[in-house]
Amino acid sequence: MPRCCLDVSLKAEGSMAGIKEMFGRKINLSVSAYDTAWVAMVPSRDTTNVPCFPECLDWIMENQHQDGSWGLLPGHPLLVKDKLSCTIACVIALRKWRVGKQSVQRGLNFIGSHGWAATDTDQLCPIGFGILFPAMIKEATELGLDVPLDPVLVDRMTVNQTSVLESFIGKEAILASVAEGVGESCFWEAVKNQKRSNGSLVNSPSTTAAALLYHHDKQSCEYLCLVLKEYSSGVPVAHPTELYARLCMVDALQRLGVQRYFRHEMESVLKDADRHWQLKSEEIFLDITCCALGFRLLRTHGYEVSSDELARLVDQHKFSEASGMQFMSLVSILELHKASCLMMHESEVALEQIHTLTTSYLTQQLSNEGILDETLSKEVEYALKNENGTLDRIQSRQSIHLYREDKFDILKTSYRYPNLYSKDLLTFSLYDFNYCQAHHKAELRQLERWYKGNRLDQLKDTRQVLHTAYFLITADVFNPELTEARAAYAENIILGTIVDDLFDNFAPREELLNIIDLVKKWDEPAAGDYYSNRVEIFYSALYKTLNEIGAKVVMQQGRCIKNHLVSTWLKMLEGMMSELDWWEDGVTPTIDEYLAAACETINARVCILPTIFLLGIKLPDDIIDGKEYSSLLQHVSIVARLLNDLQTYKKELIESKPNCIQQLLLKDNGVISEEEALTKTKEMIETSRRKLLQMVLQTKGSSIPRVCKDVFWTTSKIAHFLYSFRDEFSSPKEMINHINQVIYEPLILPQNMG
């Protein structure tokens, strides 16, 4: 158990034990009234006037709600349309076998009083409702039931159903998802091709049962018997879902920020998922949501998985067509979007297309207020805003805030995992967040003492970035055990920002040259060696800080890297001087010359170098001399520098200061427009971001530990976060809110869960 867990309350430790137990339990879905009703309709092969699965009829009789409906419990105000679908299916099943007369009437009464929901766009709509509901109305009418709905409404729904079904010719994968709505039509022959090795049609008990109404199949009967054996007298909306449920557990632990406590359990799930992937298992490759989630988790954890299978599955579902989107859940589309953000190779054209389509669709749904589930709407908004990477603590706080023990999703009907989203998980995540936060507050007080002790608060002409600097690294590298790594990163952000301001704000050239000369000599100078008080304060702080960091590295690594630290700082300072010389002399560097200097001056290198040596793991002696380290630095530096250039280019164009956009415009002598130069710069950022991601996730042939490579990726995420604001260190209201939420404001456990 990590040391940081020892101070978490006994209640949190009890919750941790409960979470570990979840990995050893079977994870079942809630029973679906809709699917159970369809299974109840299947006649016995030997005697067609009796049900094949009478236990399903018993379940229906025993689980009608007080208002006469059937559906998910506990319910939700947005699930009335779903209740209509479940209720008419149950009514048909009871009527077919001439049982439960009173239950049938109560169900019809509910439909009559809630028929308004059938066309209400403010209700969550089950997938395929427009096909399935009118088909069931027709079936109920043929059974002699008087369904109390407006005939005009029913006629309109029937016409629309016919039109949609005709458009599905040649689209078997889409049709299979709503096949119970096709009746005895010729569509069944096409749907039968979607049969899986377990005997089901698309892992759906309702679709499989509907097929058995018209075409007996021994294997399909065995599938339903197997599901009923596991669920007793009812069936879920889909089966099997065990792999998907366990992947959801892994994803939840990561989003809530407590994955470090459950590495063994998570790795076991991921190994199993990888086994399924390599075997091309139907459970993962024929379920688009499971495939997208599995791809994302496996790739981010260093498993080698190709996007080809995901692309094939998306193509099979005609995802690029409107009909394909219409018959996919929003959760599936969101998972596809998240998966598409892991593009690494130029050959992954399909992922690029998926990213474009999902971004457009989700953005449109948000702008049209088409996402009725408030929690899901916030998740979509967050995913679109942070597709280049999110700082973990910001995501964790939001995930804890949005966490619902009664969370449900919706396919052809609503469902939930009763034992997956638990009070234990919420309680433990909240206590751990607050424990880490208390630790971070104490660290920040120590950083404040370092800041004042080095008199940096006296440098009035430079930006005061102490709190922002600490927040940026802590928001992603938050493990309480990594105090020294966070301090080194934050201190170098602060010192780098100060010297950047000196160069940008035209400090006397003599001061700047004095700083460079002092760093070259790197010793403790006499008072007369300083050009100004400002130089003395800055250099003294730099000298003391790098020496202290060097001593900490010796303690952890058993060797000294102080010369590397000083050399990295010197290269940054000399790069800044080169940029200043270009500006003062009116020299226009080539784009290659500019990028070479700009990648040294962005401050990423001086932050990363000391941090990776303070992560608590021994590193090879030659780690920073190799090509891999150099390439990682190059890619992250380009990302950070060009993001900065995009933000500041208008100001720097006016001042004639070097900037990538300006260099591109000058390079082509005005042949390309400013807009084209901006597009080219964004393409350069994306190319380096993908190459960086590829190197971070790569395991084969990599000599740098993943925990170290994650610092490079953290730096990329920090850059995207930082430069999403108007001025990276101006501390707008949103930035201040993030700082308060991550460092100062504890989370409160809801009273009903205390």
UniProtKB/TrEMBL annotation:
Residues 456-690 form the Terpene synthase metal-binding domain. It comes from the Eukaryota. InterPro entries: Isoprenoid_synthase_dom_sf, Terpene_synth_N, Terpene_synth_N_sf, Terpene_synthase-like, Terpene_synthase_metal-bd, Terpenoid_cyclase/PrenylTrfase. Residues 188-384 form the Terpene synthase N-terminal domain. Keywords: Lyase, Magnesium, Metal-binding. This is Cis-abienol synthase, chloroplastic-like isoform X3.
